[in-house]
Amino acid sequence: MPRILFSSLSSPGHTFPLVPLAVAARDAGHEVHFAAGDHVHPALDGHGLRPFRPADSFYEIYADDLAPHLDRLAPDLVVHGWGLPGVAEAARAAGIRSVWHGFGRLFPDGIGFDRPSMELPHVDICPPSLQDPALTHRIPLRHVPYNEPGARPAARRGPRPLIFLSLGTAFGTPTVLASAMRGLADLDADVIVAAGSITLKDDIPDNALVRPWVAQSGLLPVVDLVVHHGGSGTMLGALAHGVPQLVLPQGADQFANANALVRAGAAIQLPPEDQHADAVAASAQALLADRGGDHRAAARAIRNEIAAMPSPDEVVEALTAR
What are phi and psi of 240, to 5 degrees? Predict the structure, then answer.
């Protein structure tokens, strides 16, 4: 059986998209190892993916960091996430076949790291209708929301609409999160908030339940609306269940993601200057009132597109059949 080395930047948003394919490879009997910084090791350990930290890598992995491990492990295939050109370089120098693995739409230039080269294939979890046409050599892969080991599906709190609010782990601010919560407090709905590292000083609205971390894979199947920052993981997770979105982009690739969702008809976007409580309330109310309307229909059309993409098991078989 082939030995496969996965590698990613050390953050949930970059690591978790690779986990379904790595788990499928493990379940198919392949020997799987995962190179990443320590921060994501507990999650990878939980799935039996043999994580290790190359050299002194904290977030990024450079070619010189990985080269000794390629000699040690002698993998048959290296799967490297976007943002790791050093891993692609090390695999090429060692004569080992490698492929990119995306985390969503192909991100624009100028967000902090280089766009991946196009000479290698890309395992692509973004549905074609949303993907940047500049991405070539695609290997389509159905997006599977990350599941924590042993996670259980969430239950609705009551008959009212249920809203999920998250600003991710990197760009959210107390001001934006508090404004969004104030806006959603005026609605006849229940709100579950993933606050991340943000500590909220204001009173929590009566209709809100705030947690530092929420297992999205269990929650998204039962929500009626997702209000979020435009991160790829939350965007694709909501689309996988046909849920419309209100996007409050903050930085990085979030504006491009929001624009793509709006063009597809599955979301409303509020730019930073409009991310105040009244605008959030009005936009969220419009999306909740549209339960059988255009935004939900567009989201469900993309849900069906995602469901028709090849499964992780099928992609593992294709990648290892060579």
Answer: -60, -20
